[in-house]
Amino acid sequence: MIPLQFVDSILLEYHIGQILLLVFGLAILGSLPLGSRKVLALNVTAFGLIFALTPQSLVPLWYMFFGLILLLVGPVLWYTAED
């Protein structure tokens, strides 16, 4: 098991927006092998909501706009997916 101090020393160098971007990228990479556009759309929509609702005191303003874009792209991916 990794010591908590090691994880804390890594995370102190980054703000929450950068960590969310990393987790978003890993979630997208994890959903690609499934081959389902609906799962991808759910990931995009969920992270769009997370980015849009993250307090602006923790991240720069452009993360909110990125979240709004993801909130628009997610439903488009959902409705264009084949059953």
- Derived from helix and strand composition plus strand pairing, the structural class reads mainly alpha
Order of helices and strands: HHHH
β-sheet strand percentage: under 5%
Q: Helix content range of the residues, please? A: over 70%
Largest pleated sheet: none
Number of helices: 4
Low-confidence stretches: none
State the end-to-end distance: 41 Å
Radius of gyration, taken over Cα atoms and rounded to an integer in Å: 15 Å
Mean pLDDT: 90
How would you describe the shape?
Answer: flat
Instruction: Please count the beta strands (DSSP E, at least 2 residues each).
Output: 0
Domain DUF8006: 1-82
Keywords: Membrane, Transmembrane, Transmembrane helix
Transmembrane segments: 12-32, 39-55, 61-81
Organism: Halalkaliarchaeum desulfuricum
Structure, explained:
α2 packs antiparallel against α3 (37-53) and α3 (37-53) packs antiparallel against α4 (62-80). The N and C termini lie far apart (41 Å). The longest helix is centred in the last third of the chain and has 19 residues, at 62-80. The protein has a domain at 27-83. The chain has 83 residues and is mostly helical. The chain is 72% helix and 0% strand. The chain has four helices and no strands.
